[in-house]
């Protein structure tokens, strides 16, 4: 049995703690605030919990695997249902093409693309990502990644190839290119420096769907908190971890403002890195400005909308009359929407704008791609001396699915403690 200290009580920390406790490790979780769940709880404003990213997820197997391997199965804990299509509005001058792209089925995607654009080069391109997805999953997701990429994987993944190069090669029609490039821009990355293999998420969404938890992400946070209680995790709130202590070349504890907590293994899930840990030579992603919009009345629209203008804008529903706008286009987001045929200006009854500097203080959005080698420089790669990382700031990325894969890999690496 290892004495494991988990730092941070968000999604990463809760899933890591419950998994490792189920494997019979002695687990303590340190949370700086008085509540668990982190960004799953949302941002409170105007008597409402706002979610600064869409509440839908892909790869439902990641969540099912967590619940199954930490206790009762997911279907006995929280309901999950398929999300509706994502609306893409492609703006070219005065022309607007509207694509409602469904998830989880190739046939439905094909039909939607043909209906909007008249032909379907999209589906064959997504098909081609299947082997890439398998390679990325096996080499970078299923185990704690060591930072290497052997020759067979290099041939498969072609890591030097960028998203921009792949989009130009695959599509003559610029409308399809923008469907590939804009998700990268929205994430805060440059398609000219982002590896093409990261586009596998189009394959994952089509094959595994997008899903919504009943009660949203706060309900998921509550379920995770209950699970840590069931697994008898020692949760210590209002305790900020500062650094990791070492003895004889291995982790010996976590330094907090109140003293040192002994540990043989540390899983650091908090966005602030340990003081003694060398900051990676990467650039932190700068989130796009967000606008929280309260409308006069509910609108009959898909729950997620992407406007592909010169630069993209993304909207998602965060309540019956509540929408969040993520704006990479600059200027007033309501003016950008009006130019795309969505004039919400008369409908907005309350509004709050969040600048990037405010959003950076609310959490980590991961590290910007600067070529494929950036993958090997993130915290969590080549774990040493009993220190592991998981979370938005760590390998393999900032989405819930990727974070869930990271904590599963850590648990698999540490393994089960034999029964006495």
From TrEMBL:
<dbReference type="GO" id="GO:0016491">
    <property type="term" value="F:oxidoreductase activity"/>
</dbReference>
<feature type="domain" description="Amine oxidase">
    <location>
        <begin position="11"/>
        <end position="321"/>
    </location>
</feature>
<protein>
    <submittedName>
        <fullName>FAD-dependent oxidoreductase</fullName>
    </submittedName>
</protein>
<dbReference type="Pfam" id="PF01593">
    <property type="entry name" value="Amino_oxidase"/>
</dbReference>
<dbReference type="InterPro" id="IPR002937">
    <property type="entry name" value="Amino_oxidase"/>
</dbReference>
<dbReference type="InterPro" id="IPR036188">
    <property type="entry name" value="FAD/NAD-bd_sf"/>
</dbReference>
């Amino acid at each position: 049995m290892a004495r494991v200290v988990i730092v941070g009580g968000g999604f990463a920390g809760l899933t890591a703690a419950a998994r490792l406790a189920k494997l019979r490790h002695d687990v303590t979780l340190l949370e700086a605030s008085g509540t668990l769940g982190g960004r799953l709880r949302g941002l409170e404003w105007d008597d409402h919990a706002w979610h600064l990213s869409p509440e839908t997820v892909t790869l439902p197997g990641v969540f099912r695997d967590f619940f199954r391997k930490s206790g009762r199965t997911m279907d006995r804990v929280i309901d999950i249902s398929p999300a509706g299509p994502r609306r893409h509005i492609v703006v070219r001058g005065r022309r607007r093409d509207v694509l409602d792209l469904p998830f989880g089925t190739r046939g439905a995607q094909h039909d939607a693309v043909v209906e909007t654009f008249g032909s379907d080069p999209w589906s064959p391109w997504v098909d081609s990502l299947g082997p890439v997805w398998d390679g990325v999953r096996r080499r970078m997701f299923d185990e704690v990644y060591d930072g290497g990429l052997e020759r067979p994987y290099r041939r498969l993944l072609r890591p030097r190839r960028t998203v921009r190069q792949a989009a130009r090669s695959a599509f003559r029609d610029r409308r399809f290119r923008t469907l590939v490039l804009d998700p990268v821009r929205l994430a805060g990355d440059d398609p000219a420096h982002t590896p093409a293999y990261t586009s596998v998420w189009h394959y994952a969404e089509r094959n595994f769907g997008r899903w919504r938890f009943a009660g949203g992400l706060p309900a998921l946070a509550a379920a995770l908190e209950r699970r840590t209680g069931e697994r008898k995790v020692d949760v210590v709130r209002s305790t900020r971890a500062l650094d990791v202590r070492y003895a004889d070349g291995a982790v010996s504890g976590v330094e907090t403002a109140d003293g040192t907590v002994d540990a043989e293994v540390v899983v650091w899930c908090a966005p602030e890195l340990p003081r003694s840990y060398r900051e990676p030579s990467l650039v932190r992603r700068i989130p796009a400005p967000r606008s929280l919009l309260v409308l006069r009345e509910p609108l009959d629209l898909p729950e997620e909308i992407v406007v592909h203008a010169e630069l993209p804008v993304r909207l998602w529903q965060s309540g019956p009359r509540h929408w969040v706008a993520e704006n990479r286009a600059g200027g007033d987001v309501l003016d950008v929407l009006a130019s795309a045929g969505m004039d919400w200006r008369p409908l907005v009854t309350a509004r709050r704008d969040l600048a990037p500097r405010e959003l950076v203080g609310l959490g980590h959005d991961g590290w910007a791609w600067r070529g494929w080698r950036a993958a090997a420089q993130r915290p969590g790669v080549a774990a040493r001396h009993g220190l592991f990382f998981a979370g938005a700031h760590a390998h393999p990325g900032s989405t819930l699915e990727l974070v869930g894969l990271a904590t599963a890999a850590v648990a698999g690496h540490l393994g089960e403690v034999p029964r006495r």
